[in-house]
């Protein structure tokens, strides 16, 4: 659950032992914080799992990604590994996220073809650079 009660501190009070408690993956934090703001503004209805499902957030299982490669691994919807209480059912170290990056050529313009095609080509990796959203 995301709380809006926490506040940024420029410096920690004397004797502070640092952050403690559960850790949330940055990708999930970004999606959850966007969802929470949209929910509060009544821009979305339903829960987080339904929100992520509609956004088509994809991931790959690490073993599948390593054995099959980025062009053959099966993309899965992130909502498949969230339970009814929006709890992540998979271990973070077993996931590879698809970031939806665009490949740009040396001239800064998008390259033709998909990221999957370019990722499988050595020429695409040498000449282009990935830019995430």
In short:
Helices cover 31% and strands 11% of the residues. The chain contains 5 helices and 5 strands, in the order H-H-E-H-E-E-E-H-H-E.
Shape: extended
What is the makeup of the main sheet?
A: 3 strands, antiparallel
Helix content: 25-40%
What is the number of domains? Answer: 2
Which value, in Å, is the CA radius of gyration?
A: 19 Å
Distance between the termini: 25 Å
State the low-pLDDT regions, or none: 117-133
Q: If helices are DSSP runs of H or I spanning 4 or more residues, what is the number of helices?
A: 5
User: What is the element string, with H for helices and E for strands?
Assistant: HHEHEEEHHE
* Major sheet: arrangement of strands: 2-1-3
Q: Count the strands?
A: 5
Please identify the structural class as seen in this structure.
alpha+beta
Instruction: Give the strand content.
Output: 5-15%
- Mean pLDDT, to the nearest integer, reads 77
Describe this structure in words.
- The protein has five helices and five strands, in the order ααβαβββααβ.
- The chain is of the alpha+beta class and 133 residues long.
- The chain has two domains: 25-98, no CATH class; 100-133, no CATH class.
- The strands form two sheets. Strands 2-1-3 form a three-stranded antiparallel sheet.
- It is extended and about 50 Å long.
């Amino acid at each position: 659950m995301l709380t809006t009660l926490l506040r940024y501190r420029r410096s920690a009070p004397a004797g502070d032992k640092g952050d403690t408690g559960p850790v949330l993956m940055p990708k999930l934090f970004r999606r959850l914080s966007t969802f929470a703001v949209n929910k509060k503004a009544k821009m979305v209805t339903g829960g987080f799992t339904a929100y992520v499902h509609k956004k088509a957030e994809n991931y790959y299982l690490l073993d599948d990604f390593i054995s099959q490669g980025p062009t053959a691994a099966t993309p899965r919807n992130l909502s498949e590994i969230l339970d009814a209480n929006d709890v992540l059912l998979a271990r973070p170290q077993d996931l590879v996220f698809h970031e939806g990056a665009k490949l740009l050529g040396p001239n800064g313009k998008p390259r033709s073809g998909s990221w999957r095609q370019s990722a499988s080509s050595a020429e695409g990796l040498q000449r282009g650079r990935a830019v995430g959203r």
